[in-house]
Amino acid sequence: MNIIVTGGAGFIGSNFVFHMLKAHPDYRIICLDKLTYAGNLSTLEPVMDNPNFRFVKADICDKEAVDKLFEEEKPDIVVNFAAESHVDRSIENPQVFLETNILGTSVLMDASRKYGVKRYHQVSTDEVYGDLPLDRPDLFFTEQTPIHTSSPYSSSKAGADLLVLAYYRTYGLPVTISRCSNNYGPYHFPEKLIPLMIIRALHDESLPVYGDGLNVRDWLYVEDHCKAIDLIIHEGKVGEVYNVGGHNEMANIDIVKLILKELGKSEDLITYVTDRKGHDRRYAIDPTKIHNELGWLPETKFADGIVKTIKWYLDNEAWWQPIISGEYQNYYEKMYGDK
Ligand code: NAD
Ligand code: TYD
């Protein structure tokens, strides 16, 4: 089985590459990644010499490069993680989100049609459903919840989802979509809430909490997300959407306090800052469908996962320090420039 994994040098994609090489030692995994600011090739260093792994630096919007790779590798499955993923950046500069998240998806699906890929899987997000009110804890996102986006990021992901379903209906491309809640775990880029707060707290820097800090996210350990995608690409029904989430809702401020407690730091570091524009209040996934149809359940409890994650950042300063200093962006040129 040949699988092209796009965005495999990012947070979830790299965890997925590791998961797949371990869970399916007979599969060949080809990672296609542009290495934007969010892609870090040093993350993939442990598998670079694995004969079942290949890394290709390319843009999913580059039709020629994508076609060439599909021609060479004849993939059975494509899993598309590649995206611009940070809401705050999308508010500053929406354009690149539309290019990568929507146009890039269409380039990958055109190649998937042309080369007869057996499954195209789109990694999407619960943010396509918009948000839920804080005073209605009985409400959850199901696969039937209407698309109702808030940010340029979530709008671009929703646009891609609609296009994926259109390729299924119009061309019969065998697609699946997963819509997952917020992930956390190793290799999470330190612009996102949890790694940002861990690293700033370690440096005794102020912790910028947006608005009143009461916004709720539904957190899932990244390995559980990877296992869900592995199940969907093998056993999921073509043309279907699967919500993935752990019933683990937490207010931002409670996460920040928990991180401070684990690190033995003072809550005086917390600084309330101006709220994000259009800030979604609450996300909460109903994962009944994937549980009933595919038997998936999250395995890592938040209490354990967050401790594991904090420990990972304490033990892996060598991974995040070059990111903080910006040095990681020279890594590809330094290691692979003449290869
Ligand atoms: P990330 O920002 O950490 O990684 C994105 C990766 O995509 C990087 O390696 C980057 O170099 C690559 N990339 C970006 N533009 C590219 C392009 N044009 N061509 C090729 N590669 C490109 O993102 P992440 O948090 O790992 O998210 C991965 C996917 O999962 C995204 O599609 C995101 O929307 C989705 N998702 C994320 C979360 C979350 O909590 N992080 C939750 C649900 C869904
Ligand atoms: P983030 O990790 O950016 O994920 P998303 O916006 O995709 O859910 O943010 C998670 C929550 O944390 C969100 O409600 C915004 C909030 N937040 C802060 O309060 N301060 C910060 O510095 C960041 C990055 C996020």
Question: What does the model show?
Answer:
With 339 residues, this protein is of the alpha/beta class. It has a single domain, classed as 3-Layer(aba) Sandwich (Rossmann fold), CATH 3.40.50. 42% of the residues lie in helices and 17% in strands. The protein contains 12 helices and 13 strands. It has helices at residues 11-23, 63-73, 87-92, 95-114, 152-171, 193-202, 222-235, 252-263, 288-294, 302-315, 317-325, 331-336, and strands at 2-6, 28-33, 53-57, 77-80, 119-125, 175-180, 183-184, 207-210, 216-218, 220-221, 240-244, 249-251, 270-273. The strands form 4 sheets. Strands 3-2-1-4-5-6-11 form a 7-stranded parallel β-sheet, with helices on both faces. Strands 7-10 form a two-stranded parallel sheet. The chain has a two-stranded parallel sheet with strand order 8-13. Helix 1 (11-23) links the parallel strand 1 and strand 2. Helix 1 (11-23) crosses helix 7 (222-235), helix 2 (63-73) packs parallel to helix 4 and helix 4 (95-114) runs parallel beside helix 5 (152-171). The radius of gyration is 19 Å and the shape is globular. The two termini are 27 Å apart. The mean pLDDT is 97.
Q: What is the helical fraction, as a range of percent? A: 40-55%
Strand percentage lies at 15-25%
Which sequence of SSEs, written as H and E, runs from N to C? EHEEHEHHEHEEHEEEHEEHEHHHH
Mean pLDDT comes to 97
- Which ligands appear in the coordinates? nicotinamide-adenine-dinucleotide, thymidine-5'-diphosphate
- Helix vs. strand class: alpha/beta
**Unreliable residue stretches:** none
Question: What oligomeric state do these chains adopt?
Answer: single chain
Overall shape: it is globular
Number of strands: 13
Describe the strand arrangement of the main beta sheet, using strand numbers: 3-2-1-4-5-6-11
CATH homolog superfamily: NAD(P)-binding Rossmann-like Domain
> What count of domains describes the coordinates?
1
According to CATH, the fold-level topology is Rossmann fold
Distance between the termini: 27 Å
Tell me, what is the CATH class?
Answer: Alpha Beta
The CATH architecture designation is: 3-Layer(aba) Sandwich
